[in-house]
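Sequence in, structure out.
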Amino acid sequence: MTCFIENGPLGGAAISDLDVYRQQSLQGGLGFTEQKLIQIFEDFAVIEIRKMKEYPSDSSRFGVNGLLTALFQKKKVD
């Protein structure tokens, strides 16, 4: 997944889900920290959480400063 970094260069509002409903606004987009993602996806194993690598606009790859990228896997049930 890809998401805004909380209070990052692209925005990433540090508000709660409840605040979204109260204010009726995402304030441009919700931001997340590594810890918040781990909490939200607690039923999944973390493969990787990192800042997205930035690539030039003329690159064949997409990469922008200010985003987190994360990979999770469903936990195996014993």
